[in-house]
Amino acid sequence: IENRGKGVIEASEGARGTGILHAIGDSDGDIIKGRLINNGRIEGRNDDVANSQQGDGIRLSSGIEPDEIIVGLGLRANLENRRQGEIIAADDGIEIDGKITLRGNINNRGEIVAENDGIIIAGQVTGNLNTTGIITAGDEGIEIRSDGQIGKINIGGRVSGGIGEAIEIDGITGDINNRGILFSADEDGISVDGSGTVDGNINNFGEIQSPTDVGIRIDGTLTGAINNTGLIAGLDTSIDADTADASITVSNRGTLS
What we know:
Number of strands: 36
Mean pLDDT: 88
Number of helices: 0
């Protein structure tokens, strides 16, 4: 799927729907090869039913029931929102469902605006999440759910959370590298929750800010260190690791406030 230039993909006016719903399959080993590129506008509309996910911009899903055990469902491709691309969502901007494996990267160089989460990963992404564009969310900017896993998270643009964190980790990720701006209006800049693991370092060369809470909160596991040459700022404190699974090393050559 390639949405070019002035192309528009949207759920019908007055309808509840996802901009692009990619149903992968319902049998062991179902894998689709291809590409999903947006350089136009994709819009999901009218998510007025709680937890319906009907207003997602892009959603990778499966055709199986939640209690079925199916392995190997996946899409072998990069998911790309290019420089002129816009993803507008009444629910989540991009969602990878729990039984899906994306064998590639998620690359955002455009803009994602979502009333709920900007990018939510409940499945597996074998590559990295790379964003040099803008993500603006009503809840979490980026959320890795408890069963979700991704390679690394690389930020070069701006990620803004609303009532949620800029980045929330409940699952597993590798390094988090920030060269842009991570901002949350009402929660932490980065939160590694009790069930979450960062298998690597949190490296900040940019800004991580929370005017109401904590810059970086570690309640789960960080196997590496927090390395800061930028700014980490919070109302309560810059870094809170009081309830982390183990002691945390912080190397600071920037500003903690």
